[in-house]
Amino acid sequence: MTSPIIVAVDGAAGSGKSTLARGLARALGVAYVNTGLMYRALAAAAIRSGVDPDDAERLVDLAEALRFTVRGDDPPALEVEGYGPEDLTTPEVESTVSLVARHPAVRSLMRDAQRALGSIGAVMEGRDIATVVFPEAPLKLFLRADPDRRVGRRADERGADDRDAIGRALQTRDARDARTNPLAPARGAVVIDTSHRSIEESLTTALEEARRIWPAATP
Predict the structure, then answer these.
(1) Looking at the predicted structure, is the pLDDT value of residue 1 above 50?
(2) Which pTM does this prediction carry?
(3) Are strands 68-71 and 77-80 parallel, antiparallel or unpaired?
(4) Which one of 11, 32, 101, 132 has the fewest beta carbons within 10 angstroms of its own beta carbon?
(5) Where are the domains of the chain?
(6) Which range (43-52, 107-116, 194-203) has the least confidence?
(7) Order of strands across the sheet with 122-126?
(8) Full DSSP string of 119-169
């Protein structure tokens, strides 16, 4: 029996994870799962419900009520019932997501959900995919980028002009996230520095690595 295609993509915000992971999933014919959306949905749920980000017990209750599915095509992608992109990218969610994601009980619940979503094959991106969620993934990628590039990409994603504010927000989030999951490549991960690479160049490098493992599944 052939094992499913599972690619774990880790890296900091603005390193190019989402663009690369989506393109790689499309090329491999598997689902694209952005685990950051799961934590963003929890942050949005906490804001809607007035739940304190320090209240781990109530956050777990909120997380258990979230419904995650993989839908669509080219590639199939994660959706969170009741939450659209506009709900998950607000400044309030941006400033809250690291706070709700830091609780071990929350991360344990999310980890189980992520493993279920990726069990039949996926390119999954996040901060701890290769180290915690799928440590035995056949292909692990770790993306890094210069701070200025990360800020610029984040500004483009958000359609924002105040890059200084975005830079400060990224620094704050990096510091919070590092307390939960130190940002370092997993053992055996292929490191791709996207600072001075185009999207196509980074994707080509990832596909070359995938071809070594799944030659029949790659273009």
Answers:
(1) no
(2) 0.87
(3) antiparallel
(4) 132
(5) 6-213
(6) 194-203
(7) 68-71, 77-80, 31-34, 122-126, 6-11, 139-144, 190-193
(8) TT-EEEEESSIIIII-TT-SEEEEEE--HHHHHHHHHHHHT---HHHHHHH
